[in-house]
Specification:
The protein is α+β, with helices and mostly antiparallel strands and 139 residues long. The chain has three helices and seven strands.
Length: 139
């Protein structure tokens, strides 16, 4: 069982700007009319803002995370999430995307490496990797 505090877990906006900026630029470069270029830019902006809101909603700034494989419990002032770590969870180099399967629905929780100490982040990545490989083997 691991328990650690998530502090200053800020979301990084740079990947979103680069991704949707390149998407809009590539489409605008190959479109011929001004109307389609402007509509593509506006559509890309709206989709980018929607993705950013989803990302911020599932990216808590602070809280306490308790991991008892395969169970997970996250608590902060805004929400409390209890459930099992789902097989859709992913561990990347600088972030962990937890898919927590609760009783009624699933929740996403995104923890960055700068949001906790190095040892806790490594333990969280190990728990996610152990749980996702168990799900693949049992199928």
């Amino acid at each position: 069982m691991y328990r650690f505090c998530v502090i200053n877990n800020k979301a990084d906006h740079k990947p979103f700007v680069v991704c949707f900026g390149l998407f809009a630029f590539c489409f605008c470069a190959f479109l011929t009319t001004l109307f389609t270029q402007v509509s593509t830019l506006l559509l890309s902006l709206l989709i980018g803002l929607r993705c950013w809101r989803w990302y911020k909603q599932h990216h808590p700034v602070q809280g306490t995370l308790i991991v008892d494989c395969p169970h997970c419990h996250f608590v902060n002032l805004e929400k409390e999430i209890i459930g099992k770590i789902g097989c859709k969870s992913r561990a990347y180099q600088h972030s962990v995307w937890l898919n927590i399967v609760g009783l009624g629905r699933t929740h996403w929780l995104i923890i960055n490496a700068n949001g906790c100490d190095e040892q806790s982040f490594t333990r969280l990545k190990r728990a996610v990797l152990a749980n996702t490989t168990d799900g693949v083997v049992s199928k």
